[in-house]
Write a structure and sequence with these properties.
Blueprint lengths: L11 H33 L37 E8 L3 E9 L24 E5 L13 E18 L10 E21 L3 H14 L5 E9 L8 E8 L16 H10 L1 E2 L2 E2 H15 L4 H24 L30
Antiparallel strand pairs: 1-2, 3-5, 4-5, 4-6, 6-7, 8-9
Subcellular location: Cytoplasm
GO molecular function: glutathione specific gamma-glutamylcyclotransferase activity
Family: Belongs to the gamma-glutamylcyclotransferase family.
């Protein structure tokens, strides 16, 4: 699946300055094509017939480091795309869209050997949506963050964590996004600017941290002020395939009591599973957009902790210790040595 990065507005002046070198490149391509086509017609004596769009010359877009850029990216009302069109004349008028580049899709997602890629580095940004621990602990350098939500997704605790807050023997439950028509999931979108090196560093950190997630989904991100139109499109969200056979980290849904029992008792190198849930609950409260499902699950975990606490307290109650087993050693009295008064004169 082709994926690319999130949108950020680019000033028109910046776009015009970027398009000037690109226009020169396209003019050169058009000139070379026209010359080669004229030579071919003269050599073979053929009369060109109308060609289908599949026969138009195309620039080969190789695979980038992370994911390939789409051949054509649809623009959105709040997004600004640069459509570089090449009109090729070969006896008949044809117009072929050569490549459409989104200046904020992230420079690391663009092919390295594309001739004019560097022209867009200064206009590109990287956006990622945080809906779990990234809400309160992003862990990487970012330039901006926006509170908002994604549509048609809900937050669920169906993903296993075996190296942070759980173990392979007793996995923790962490949240992932599940497609659900009409649902919304609040969180934070983080922006990284400054070129491919900063983007690469952020992405490599996130891929190590979010290793249980086997997908990078592209989501439309909506801000608090406007629920009708997305403020950002193509924002990266780490998600998981809801299939236990193809995704070994997917636990699937379970009864609320069973999930609470698992979260209350799981722990790993980074801490307890319950702390993850409670921190998420507090983070969503601080954002001003509490998640009813998170609150319900957190309350159930607290009930489970009370049960565990009473059980442990009963096991270590002092009434279970026989009185004769309590031994207080006797005190031994020793005479104090006589003090010697020294003459100070």
């Amino acid at each position: 699946m082709h994926t690319w990065r999130g949108w950020h507005r680019t000033p028109p002046a910046t776009i015009n300055s970027l398009l000037q070198p690109a226009d020169l490149l396209l003019s050169e391509l058009e000139k070379k094509y026209t010359q080669s086509e004229a030579a071919r017609r003269e050599r073979e004596g053929e009369i060109l017939e109308r060609e289908s769009s599949e026969n138009f010359p195309k620039i080969s877009v190789p695979e980038a480091k992370f994911v390939p850029i789409p051949e054509l990216v649809a623009s959105s009302p709040l997004s600004l795309s640069l459509s570089l069109s090449l009109s090729i004349s070969s006896g008949l008028n044809h117009s072929s869209s050569l490549l459409q580049i989104i200046p904020s899709c992230g420079s690391a997602f663009l092919p390295e050997n594309l001739a004019f890629t560097s022209l867009f580095y200064t206009a590109m940004v990287f956006w990622v949506f945080g809906y779990g621990s990234l809400v309160w602990n992003p862990g990487f350098e970012y330039d901006d963050k926006v509170i908002g939500f994604v549509k048609n997704y809900k937050r669920v605790f169906d993903l296993a964590c075996i190296d942070h807050r759980g173990t392979p023997e007793h996995p923790a439950r962490t949240c992932t996004l599940e497609e659900n028509e009409g649902a919304i999931c609040w969180g934070v979108a983080y922006c990284v600017r400054g070129g491919p090196e900063r983007e690469k560093a952020a992405m490599e950190y996130l891929e190590r941290r979010e290793c249980e997630y086997d997908k990078k989904s592209l989501v439309d991100f909506y801000k608090e002020e406007d629920h009708s139109q997305p403020a950002l499109t193509g924002v990266i969200a780490f998600t998981s395939t809801p299939d236990k056979f193809s995704n070994r980290y997917y636990l699937g849904p379970a009864p609320l009591e069973d999930m609470a029992r698992q979260i209350a008792t799981a722990f790993g190198p980074c801490g307890n599973n319950r702390d993850y849930l409670f921190l998420l609950e507090k983070a969503m409260f601080d954002l001003g957009h509490e998640d009813d499902y998170v609150i319900e699950l957190a309350d159930e975990v607290r009930k489970e902790l009370e049960i565990i606490g009473k059980r442990e307290k009963k096991l270590i109650s002092p009434h279970k210790i026989p009185p004769k087993a309590v031994h207080i050693p006797s005190l031994q009295r020793r005479p104090l040595q006589e003090a010697i008064v020294m003459d100070s004169s």
